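Bumping with the actual sequence this time:
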Amino acid sequence: MRFTILSVAALVLLLAATHGLQGQRDSEDLAAVKEFLKKAHARKKWQSGPKQVTGDAIAKAYGADQKFYYVFSAPPLPPGANIPELIKAFRARYKDYQDNYISATLRIDAARKVSPLRNVVDYN
């Protein structure tokens, strides 16, 4: 009984320490991704992210040393009517979107090297 309680306590401490290290690595990875975006896409912004892309298939395909993040910006929706004022306002919003927003998928390796994923070959 005493051995079981000590074993469970040791397991809980081990899991907590592992989770703490993983959380620290995740926050350092996120900081590296933000720094990359700041340098590679100066003066650009995004509407969502950076968020980590996770899943069993990704872990199986790429292992634990590589992580993936994304940022996303949705383009403005076109107007529902062909009214000149609405078309003009849409074009202005779309130009702002093209000039100032980005969407990107990024890979970060164990050495914290961040690489953008733009083409099929980038995923290999």
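The tokens above came from a reply further down the thread. Residues 9-21 have pLDDT under 50 and may be disordered.
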